[in-house]
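F.,

This is the one I mentioned.
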C-alpha cells in the first residue's frame, strides 16, 4: 500500500451548485479510498461556497479543502489551477480525480502540466492496480482501442467520463473535517477576466447527463427533420444530439455535437438516426449501454456497434417509434 496521503476529487461548482459529476466522483473515489486505506478529500474552490461542504461530507468526503476568494468566484482556469497546485503541493495527495466536463478537462490539463505529472484523460474505469498505483481505462485512437494505463508519479491524475461511477449514497448528517486554506492566488498572473456568462440553450435535458440521447445526422436531409427527433426526445425524456455533418451544415448548434470534436456521452440508450457511424462519431458515444441505429443503408458502419439496428427510412421509422413509445408510456 502506498503512503497514505489521500484520494482527492475536485468538487466542481458553478454559481453555488455542485456539478452532477461531483456526486459520481464521490461514489467512485470513496470505494477507491477504502481499498487504498486512505481518506477521501474533496477540494472546493469558489466564493461563498462553504455551504456545499455539507453535501460533500454527506456523499462520502472525509475532508473538504475549502479555498474561497473573489478570484475564484467564476471559473477561470488560471486562478483555479493556482489554488489547486498550491493545495496539492502542500498536502501531496496520492490521487486527484476531476470530472470529464469541459471545465474539468481544461483545469486538469493545466494542473498536470504545472505539477509535472501525467494525466489520463477521459477515463471510463479507475481501479487500484499493483503497488497502490491506479489502473486507468480509457479509449484511445478515436475510441478504436481501449487502453489500460498505469499511473506514474504523484498525484495520480485522471479526468473521469461522466456516468463512469454511480452516484454515492447520501448519509444524512454525516460530517467531516473542514480544512480552510488561504487562496494563494497571484492576481498579476491572471490574464483573463469573465465579462459575461451565457447559459447554453442546449435543450431541456443536458446531453452529458441524459440517460437517453436521440441524435440526428446528415441522413435527416434538412434541418426541419430535427422536429421528428425532438418529438421522440420529448416522449422519451431524451436529450438531442447530432453528428458533426449536421452541425457543419448549420442545422443544429455545435453544443449538440457528439464525437471526437464534440461531446463525449455515455447514456443508457443512444439512438443514432441517419448517422453513418464514422469513427470520429463513435469516439463520443461508443460506451453507451444500448445503441439503436436507424439507417436506410444496411451496410452503414453504425450497425457494427449497434445493439439494435433498424434498416429503414427515418421519415417512417422515427414517427412510428414516437407513436409506439407514446402509447407504451401513457
Ligand atoms: C478531425 C475530425 C474530427 C471529427 N469529429 C467529429 C465529431 O466530433 N462528431 C462527428 O459526428 N463527426 C466528426 N467528424 C466527421 C466524421 O468523419 C463524419 O464525416 C461525420 O460523422 C458524418 O456524419 P453523418 O454520419 O451524419 O453523415 P454521413 O456519413 O453522410 O451519413 C449519413 C447517413 O444517413 C443515412 N441516411 C440517409 N438518408 C436516410 C434516411 N432517409 N433514413 C435513414 N438513414 C438515412 C445514410 O445511409 C448514411 O449512413 C470528424 C472528422 C474529422 C476529420
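My design for it:
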Amino acid at each position: 500500500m502506498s503512503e497514505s496521503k489521500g484520494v482527492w476529487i475536485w468538487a466542481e461548482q458553478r454559481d453555488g451548485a455542485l456539478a452532477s459529476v461531483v456526486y459520481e466522483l464521490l461514489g467512485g473515489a470513496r470505494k477507491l479510498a477504502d481499498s487504498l486505506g486512505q481518506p477521501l478529500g474533496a477540494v472546493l474552490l469558489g466564493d461563498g461556497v462553504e455551504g456545499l461542504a455539507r453535501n460533500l461530507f454527506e456523499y462520502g468526503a472525509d475532508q473538504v479543502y475549502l479555498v474561497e476568494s473573489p478570484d475564484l468566484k467564476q471559473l477561470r482556469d488560471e486562478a483555479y489551477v493556482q489554488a489547486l497546485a498550491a493545495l496539492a503541493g502542500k498536502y501531496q495527495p496520492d490521487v486527484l480525480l476531476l470530472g470529464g466536463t469541459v471545465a474539468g478537462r481544461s483545469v486538469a490539463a493545466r494542473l498536470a502540466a504545472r505539477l509535472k505529472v501525467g494525466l489520463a484523460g477521459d477515463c471510463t474505469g479507475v481501479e487500484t492496480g499493483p503497488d497502490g498505483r491506479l489502473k486507468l481505462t480509457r479509449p484511445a485512437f478515436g475510441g478504436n482501442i481501449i487502453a489500460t494505463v498505469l499511473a506514474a508519479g504523484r498525484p495520480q491524475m485522471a479526468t473521469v467520463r461522466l456516468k463512469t461511477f454511480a452516484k454515492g449514497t447520501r448519509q444524512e448528517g454525516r460530517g467531516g473535517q473542514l480544512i480552510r486554506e488561504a487562496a494563494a492566488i497571484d492576481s498579476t498572473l491572471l490574464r483573463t477576466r469573465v465579462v459575461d456568462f451565457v447559459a447554453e440553450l442546449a435543450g431541456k435535458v443536458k446531453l452529458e447527463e441524459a440517460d437517453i440521447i436521440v441524435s440526428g445526422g446528415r441522413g435527416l436531409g434538412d434541418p426541419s427533420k430535427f422536429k421528428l427527433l425532438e418529438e421522440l426526445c420529448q416522449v422519451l425524456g431524451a436529450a438531442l444530439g447530432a453528428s458533426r455533418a449536421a452541425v457543419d451544415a448549420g442545422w443544429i448548434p455545435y453544443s449538440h455535437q457528439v464525437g471526437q470534436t464534440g461531446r463525449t456521452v455515455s447514456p443508457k440508450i443512444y439512438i443514432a438516426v441517419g448517422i453513418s457511424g464514422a469513427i470520429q462519431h463513435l469516439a463520443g458515444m461508443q460506451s453507451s449501454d444500448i445503441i439503436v441505429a436507424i439507417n436506410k443503408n444496411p451496410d452503414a458502419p453504425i450497425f457494427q456497434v449497434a445493439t439494435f439496428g433498424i434498416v429503414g427510412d427515418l421519415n417512417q421509422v422515427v414517427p412510428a417509434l414516437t407513436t409506439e413509445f407514446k402509447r407504451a408510456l401513457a
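The mean pLDDT is 93.

Talk soon.
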